[in-house]
From TrEMBL:
This is Protein kinase, ATP binding site-containing protein. Keywords: ATP-binding, Kinase, Nucleotide-binding, Serine/threonine-protein kinase, Transferase. Gene3D superfamilies: Phosphorylase Kinase, domain 1, Transferase(Phosphotransferase) domain 1. Belongs to the protein kinase superfamily. CMGC Ser/Thr protein kinase family. MAP kinase subfamily. SMART domains: S_TKc.
């Protein structure tokens, strides 16, 4: 760093200090960013930083600041940039911290800088929600969405455009609540129609949107053209899917006749089709599949689910777009556990039907039959408890699906919970087999399976092997929740959940479960009928056996179907699937399947 002569400090942030400096070897002005967040020990470590990786990948674009050098000296990292006088996006990354402070200007040239918060488009969520200065933060980030995408940059651009017209921030606020109030007062309060995901996110954190009709943006920006107002309005849409991409924004009428900026020879001017979001589903895919996206209905760690209409036959479907990684061949997709298991069990009436598997532009789309909602949603909106008849019919169907899955299907689910049970009227189906494993599969399995409150004790205690009995434990917890409309084993940690389990069913003993060397809290347990006063003795008995400490003491799905609780069950099985028949209730799962087959 001896060749760089420091002139003055020109900026300071959470992770570093920026100095204007002179390269004494060639007389060139540069900006040197000294990283102050931690120590650095090798060049390889520095080259793996997001900001360095992303800028190396985009180093030749004329509108993205150029990284000239990365230097480690005395465990301090220095990033040397081209110098801009004061304070757009290549395929593969989104910025996540777009604001005027991170846009550098020299004369009439502007460049995007500070990619320290950038993420890869196909990167693995969840992302941190503390991104961007609060004034430019998209609503989904303010509401702590676990996953977000490049549309957050487009929201920030809408806010920046307004600021260019008015010379003051549009959504300035001293807290997230205040910023959300400002957003609602300008663009109006969201509804289930305009942003159903937002309503779900708000409900998760007990947030209630303030009621506003919104204002006409032209009254805030009297000098703006109708084209400018229209573009800003679309950029500031509640739903991320309604915001245009950067490519689409470039083709907006607001830019017609724009003489600047002539793209660098290395970068062709982007072209796009009409103003449609290809991030919800690629346009080519939508045309080929003849499916019209209606709205986003769910989002998880691995994918986003959309309600869609097959315009050929007016059939509603659910389209799951996998966002966790790129896919390069149909063979690769067909080998995924979720796809393999669903293909093997495609005709059971209580397992959700996978209709089609499509790979388009390295993105995998799974097309399912459409169901109205999840059991979680249904329970959340109920004001009165389920009757035992309703519970019996729902559970009978779930056990039918599990019996087929564990038997003919050869899989166990491992992530059974109300969110993964889909309901339409009085029909319920098992869904989301992304964590499923083959019954005869080779352990060890990952212990992080299922939401903690439905996780079997052996999984909580990190058993190297587990089997289909983990699904039966989950069913016991779900049955209680159907009676009470609240989770039985809520806990903020594994220890907390174990404590709750012991307090309900009593601490295990060497007789009931001798497998683990763990010090359990001492509890005698409670009579389940005191927790479930409306439940019959048969229901209490079935739940008690499902919630047994020892996996071997839990009934199988087939055995559960023959429990007295289901005598007289009114749900008629599908004609293709005869009701299962059983020998006496004897469990031979004390030994793994591989050992039993040898014996």
């Amino acid at each position: 760093m001896e060749k760089y002569q420091r002139i003055r400090e020109i900026g300071r942030g959470s992770y570093g200090v920026v100095f204007k400096a002179l390269n004494t070897e060639n007389g060139e002005l540069v900006a040197v960013k000294k990283m102050t967040d931690r120590k650095y020990y090798s060049r390889k470590e520095c080259m793996n930083l997001r900001e360095v990786r992303s800028l190396c990948k985009m180093r030749n674009h004329p509108n993205i600041v150029k990284l000239k050098e990365a230097v480690v000296q005395n465990n301090i990292l220095f990033l040397v940039f081209e110098y801009m006088e004061c304070s757009l996006w290549h395929p593969g990354y989104f910025h996540r911290d777009l604001k005027p402070d991170n846009l550098l200007v020299s004369k009439d040239v502007i460049k995007i800088a500070d990619l320290g918060q950038a993420r890869e488009i196909n990167g693995e969520p969840p992302y941190t929600d503390y991104i961007t200065t609060r004034w430019y933060r998209a609503p989904e980030v303010l509401l702590h969405a676990r996953a977000h995408d490049s549309s957050v940059d487009m929201w920030a651009m809408g806010a920046i455009m307004v600021e260019l017209f008015t010379l003051r921030p549009l959504f300035d606020g001293s807290s997230a609540t205040e910023v959300m109030l400002k957003i609602c007062s300008v663009i109006g309060t969201p509804t289930e129609t305009t942003w159903s995901l937002g309503m779900y996110l708000a409900n998760n954190i007990n947030y209630r949107f303030p009621e506003f009709l919104g204002v006409d943006l032209s009254s805030l920006m009297p000098s703006a053209s109708p084209e400018a107002i229209n573009l800003i309005s679309t950029l500031l849409s509640w739903s991320p899917c309604a915001r245009p991409t950067a490519k689409e924004a470039l083709e907006h009428p607001f830019f017609y006749g724009c003489y600047y900026h002539i793209p660098h020879p290395q970068f062709d001017c982007v072209t796009s089709s009409r103003m449609m979001r290809d991030r919800a589903l690629p346009l080519v895919f939508k045309m080929a599949m003849r499916r019209e996206i209606i709205k986003e209905i769910g989002r998880g760690s691995y994918g986003v689910v959309y309600k869609a209409l097959n315009t050929e036959n007016d059939e509603l479907v659910a389209v799951k777009k996998m966002i966790n990684r790129k896919y390069h061949s149909s063979k690769e997709c067909m080998n995924l556990r979720e796809v393999k298991s669903l293909c093997k069990m495609k005709n059971h009436p209580n397992i959700v039907k996978l209709k089609e598997v499509i790979v388009q532009k390295n993105i995998l789309f799974l097309v399912f039959e459409y169901m109205e909602c999840t059991l979680f949603d249904r329970m959340r909106h109920r004001t009165d408890p389920y009757s035992e008849t309703e519970i019996r019919n729902l559970c009978f169907q779930i056990f039918q699906g599990l019996a087929y899955m564990h038997g003919t299907g050869g899989y166990f689910h491992r992530d059974l919970k109300p969110e993964n049970l889909l309901v339409s009227k009085d029909v319920i189906k098992i869904a989301d087999l992304g964590q499923a494993r083959e019954i005869n599969g080779e352990p060890p399995y990952t212990h992080y399976v299922s939401t903690r409150r439905y996780r079997a004790p052996e999984v909580l205690l990190h058993a190297l092997e587990h089997d289909s009995s983990v699904d039966m434990w989950a069913m016991g917890a779900i049955m209680v929740e159907l009676f009470t409309l609240r989770p039985l084993f809520q806990g903020s940690s594994t220890t907390d959940v174990i404590h709750k389990i012991c307090s309900v069913i009593g601490s295990p003993t060497d007789t009931t479960w001798s497998l683990f060397n763990y010090r359990f809290p001492e509890f005698p347990g409670v009579d389940l009928s005191s927790l479930l006063p409306s439940a019959s003795p048969e229901a209490i008995n079935l739940i008690s056996t499902l919630l047994s400490w020892s996996p071997c003491a839990r009934p199988t799905a087939k055995e559960a179907l023959e429990h007295p609780f289901f005598y007289g069950c009114s749900h008629i099985p599908h004609p293709q699937f005869e009701r299962v028949t059983l020998s006496p209730m004897i469990r031979n799962r004390a030994l793994p399947v591989r050992v039993r087959s040898r014996i």
